[in-house]
Amino acid sequence: MSTRNTSSDRIDYRIDYRRNMSIPYHQQLLDMKLWNFHSLYKAFSRKKRININANTKLERCLSTLDLTALGIGSTLGVGVYVMAGSVSKNIAGPAVVISFLIAAVASIFAGLCYAEFGARVPRAGSAYVYSYVTMGEFVAFLIGWTLILEYVIGSASVVRGLSTYVDALFNNTMRNAFESAAHIKVEHFSSYPDFFAFGITLMFSAALAFGAKESSTANNFFTLVNLFVVLFVIIAGSIKADVNNWKTRPPCTETNCDRGTGGFAPYGISGIITGAATCFYGFIGFDCVATTGEEAKDPQRSIPIAIVASLTVVFLAYFGVSAVLTMVLPYYEQNPDAPFPHLFEVIGWDWAKWVVSVGAICGLCASLLGAMFPLPRIIYAMASDGLIFKWMGKVSSRFHTPIMGTFSAGILTGVLAAIFELTQLLNMMSIGTLLAYSIVAACVLILRYEESEVYEKKDDCDPRTVTFVIKQLINANGLDHPTKLTGQLVTCLVFCYFIICIFITAMVSQFSKEIANGKALYVVPIIILVIALIFTLIFIYLQPSSGKKLAFSVPFVPFLPAISILINIYLMMMLDAMTWIRFLIWMTIGLVIYFFYGMWNSSNGEKKSSKPVDYCSNEEE
User: Fold this and answer.
1) What pTM does this model have?
2) pLDDT > 60? residue 616
3) Which range has the worst mean pLDDT, 121-130, 349-358, 383-392?
4) What is the tally of helices (H) and strands (E) in the chain?
5) At residue 5, does pLDDT exceed 50?
6) Cα–Cα distance between 496 and 363 in angstroms, integer?
7) pLDDT tier for residue 605 given thresholds of 50, 70 and 90
8) Does 53 score more than 90 pLDDT?
9) Distance from C-alpha of 68 to C-alpha of 70, rounded to nearest angstrom
10) pLDDT value, residue 293
11) pLDDT band at 453 (very low <50, low <70, confident <90, very high)
């Protein structure tokens, strides 16, 4: 009898020398794949444990007033001098004040979610750290990498806007000089390298590197000047205000009336809602307050107060200037690019244009500090966790700031500001911020219904039968405290809510006219999806919630965070395709870094976790 193996034997079987037994080769491959997928899932889902009482390498030097000024400065930029005019003339008319109110309420929903997390997790890193604690490492990396892009692009757009504004005051002298010295003839790039923008970026990076308190003092000065100028505009405009301008009608014919029907809401309800979506971007920036968790003196108290206070002040500023602007001049006579210089020209106060210019420059400087301040903190948090290169998170022993991360971010920002036009930079500003807002709101929902440590007992095990799970959707099992099952159920429901929101907002953004006209092909799916959305929220609401006491808690959970998620996803769906393509390219670069570096150098991965206790086991140790 021959002992020679056949070709089939050689292919199908191999000797496993570790077990000294023959195992089918395809079974070995299957086991290996399962092991790899399991390891990958463990890496993706490992969560960050934070000791809020642990010491930090950063210096705790920022007061509640400093954080409030930082939030106001980063949010109340040059938009206050431009947005009210453009939205009132082209989108909403005098009802722009209602648009700002709706946008402010939506922003406060997102701000309250950040405020709760600031009280829960007072650490540098903002949404990155929040998602790391709640959803795991992979989602945290995606959010952190997205925030790096957002703050880089945001800083570059602000500094380019500052350069353009200053250059315009001097008849584009810098532009002409730079174009003649080093003209760029490359498509999709600026026509000249903006050395002024690059130098300003490095100067502000140096100011941030010298210390959080020093840069905060400069921000307080810029913000104070900006607020005084806004107050001057409101008071000066009130002298010439006439409420009858909210009732005027634009000159138009029966066939051509592109400026609306006149009155307070010339573009109707749709104009007010569209205006609110545009005005929402005027409130973006407050989240930089949440990155100061390791530099605030009392973060659990200061961060919630600063976020709510800064959003309130910003809303009052937007509301005041838009009301005055539309009362002094009819909405259809506004200058959408420079409304206040035009306003003061009309009323004969030419000198006031320079006051407005000073306020705009100070507003831009405050916005630049507000945009650049959180960026090194995000880099520091990610580098400390080993998800990006650790040298970028090195903290200076003298200045107590992540000096390498600050200058690295500053150089990248300066280069982008120097070689791209302002409009090209603005296209990428919003997508990451809106995604971060959505993730933070989802984290609030998940943590509010997580299993409490108080109830992690052996007799708390839920039977995982289909009947028990279905009954638990309406809490027919009578549970009065969250368990592991209810926590997992809420996580699944939040994920389903996200998916339903994506479908609803995608249909509304793409087929709004068909839905408004009542076409059954589009209306019926929307109705079904809305009913599913409502039931999902009801199922979440019926689950037992955690009774953990916090310094600040979001009210009306789960409805308030759910509304925030819906608004943010809708605004993301309104962005153009090229923005999504650029975003996907950036995320691809990030995934390469994570899979080849971050996943293997993660601080959480290096820690050896002890064997978890299985409370559902009947075995005695």
Assistant:
1) 0.79
2) no
3) 121-130
4) 26, 2
5) no
6) 41
7) low
8) no
9) 5
10) 73
11) low
Measured over the CA atoms of residue 9, residue 14, residue 17 and residue 23, the dihedral's sign is negative
* 522: CB partners within 8 A, 6+ apart: 507, 511, 514, 515
**b/e map 419-456, b = 16+ CB within 10 Å:** bbebebbbbbbbbbbbbbbbbbbbbbbbbbbbbbeebe
Dig out the tokens for 80 from the structure: 């206050």
Give Cα 542 to chain centroid, integer Å. 29
Distance of CA 326 to the CA centre of its chain: 31
Q: What's the confidence (pLDDT) of residue 289?
A: 85
Q: Which of 293, 339, 613, 604 is nearest to 457 (CA)?
A: 613
DSSP collapsed to 3 states, 211-267: CHHHHHHHHHHHHHHHHHHHHHHHHHHHHCCCHHHHCCCCCCCCCCCCCCCCCCCCC
Q: Residue 97: its pLDDT value, please?
A: 93
| Predicted confidence (pLDDT) per residue in 469-487, tens digit | 888 899 888 888 888 888 8
Confirm if 162 and 200 have CB atoms less than 8 A apart. Answer: yes
Q: What is the pLDDT of residue 124?
A: 60
Contact 395, 58 (CB under 8 A): yes
What's the pLDDT at 606? 53
Burial profile 334-351: b = 16 or more Cβ within 10 angstroms, e = fewer: bbbebbbbbbbeeeeeee
Three-class DSSP category at 22: strand
Distance between CA 147 and CA 132 in Å, rounded? 14
Spatial separation of the C-alpha atoms in residues 325 and 331, rounded to whole Å: 8
Distance CA 73, CA 77 (A): 7
DSSP 8-state code for residue 21: E
Query: Which secondary structure element, helix H or strand E, spans residue 13, and what is its range?
Result: strand 13-16
- Tokens encoding 19: 């077990």
Question: Are the C-beta atoms of 446 and 134 separated by less than 8 Å?
Answer: yes
Q: Where are the alpha helices (DSSP H) in 347-430?
A: 352-372, 374-384, 403-419, 422-426
271: its two tokens? 């104009």
Mean of the per-residue pLDDT values for the chain? 79
Q: How many CA atoms lie within 13 A of 478 on its CB side?
A: 0
Q: How far is CA 48 from CA 123, 130, 131, 603, 612, in A?
A: 12, 9, 9, 9, 16
Residue 619 has pLDDT above 50, yes or no: no
Q: How far apart, in whole angstroms, are the C-alpha atoms of residue 216 and residue 59?
A: 13
pLDDT band at 492 (very low <50, low <70, confident <90, very high): very high
Tokens of residue 507, six digits: 């249909």
How many CB atoms neighbour CB 185 within 10 A? 6
Q: Are 117 and 290 in contact (CB under 8 A)?
A: yes
Q: Residue 312 class from Cβ within 10 Å (0-12 exposed, 13-18 middle, 19+ buried)? A: middle
Task: Please tell me the predicted confidence (pLDDT) of residue 592.
Answer: 92
pLDDT of 621 > 50? The answer is: no
Phi-psi region of 84 (alpha: psi -120 to 50; beta: other; left: phi over 0): alpha
